[in-house]
Amino acid sequence: MVLVRSALAAFFVAMMMPAFALAQEGVLRVGTEGAYPPFNFFDSNRQLQGFDVDIANAVCEKLKMKCEFTAQDWDGIIPALLAKKFDVIIASMSITEERKKKVDFTNKYYNTPARFVAAKDSDVKSVDPAALAGKTLGAQSATIHANYLQEKYKDAEIKLYGSQDEANLDLVSGRLDAILADSTVLYEWMKTADGKCCEFVGEPLSDPAFFGIGAGFALRKDETELREKLNKAIAEIRADGTYEKINAKYFPFSVY
């Protein structure tokens, strides 16, 4: 009975320990999506790659830790963080007031605007809400882009998707008139065989009320020590040229 009680006590102590205390052994558990190229994606060997992954590894190197990655569907990524499936989300998550009600964020590590994309032969030439009334617009669900469409385009039909790739495919197939997403993600997609069908429409969108103030690392509330360490590491890779090298690997322009 004493052994059973001791085991139970140890179990509850472990459950109550802050995640970063568990990560002190030298591993930082990172949650990412794996379906958002070029920021995070699986290569042909089913290995996670991308800007987010390289930034995470660079930060872990500064922390003298090893990143341990978990791929998580976007819709469930914040619940998985709160359930302590990993210690931090590094997955191009925009810092918004709504999300800050659930999680804390580091300082931004990049900031790119949103844009609409439509087929080149489409009659969609304006992104004014009146011009898109009656059109079918798509975005990835549980994103700032989905929220923007639902708020601003009430006279359009809004279709939401589990991943950006799904929305892209429906645009190619003609089931959507336009999609809204991060401009850099769409820029990369339009360089592919599928994406050559399409082009940007309208101007870049960056209203902080909808699109936040950039992408940050998300972590559980009150993990001040971990947040400060991550912020310090982000500043260090910005200062020593590491960030610039990673940026140049993926983009011909600065995403910061």
How far the N terminus sits from the C terminus, by CA atoms, comes to: 58 Å
Mean pLDDT comes to: 92
- The helix content is 25-40%
| Count of beta strands | 13
> How many helix segments?
11
Radius of gyration: 20 Å
| Percent range for β-strand residues | 25-35%
Give the class from helix and strand content and strand pairing: alpha/beta
Largest sheet: 5 strands, mixed
Strand order of the largest sheet: 5-1-6-13-7
Low-pLDDT ranges: 1-23
SSE order: HHEEEEHEHEHEEEHEHEHEHEHH
Q: What shape does the CA trace take?
A: globular
Describe the structure.
- The structure is a single chain.
- The chain is built from eleven helices and 13 strands.
- With 256 residues, the protein is of the alpha/beta class.
- The chain has a five-stranded mixed sheet with strand order 5-1-6-13-7. A five-stranded mixed sheet has the order 10-9-11-8-12, with helices on both faces. It has a three-stranded antiparallel sheet with strand order 2-3-4, covered by helices on one side.
- Helix 6 (144-152) links the parallel strand 9 (136-140) and strand 10 (157-161).
- Helix 3 packs across helix 10 (224-239) and helix 3 runs antiparallel to helix 11 (242-250).
- It is globular and about 55 Å long.
Q: What is this structure, in a nutshell?
A:
The protein has eleven helices and 13 strands. The chain is an alpha/beta fold and 256 residues long.
Walk me through the topology:
Blueprint: H1 2-16, H2 19-23, E1 27-32, E2 35-36, E3 40-42, E4 48-49, H3 51-62, E5 66-71, H4 77-82, E6 88-94, H5 97-100, E7 104-110, E8 114-119, E9 136-140, H6 144-152, E10 157-161, H7 164-173, E11 178-182, H8 183-189, E12 198-205, H9 208-211, E13 215-219, H10 224-239, H11 242-250
Parallel strand pairs: 1-5, 1-6, 9-10, 9-11
Antiparallel strand pairs: 2-3, 3-4, 6-13, 7-13, 8-11, 8-12
Helix pairs in contact: 3-10, 3-11
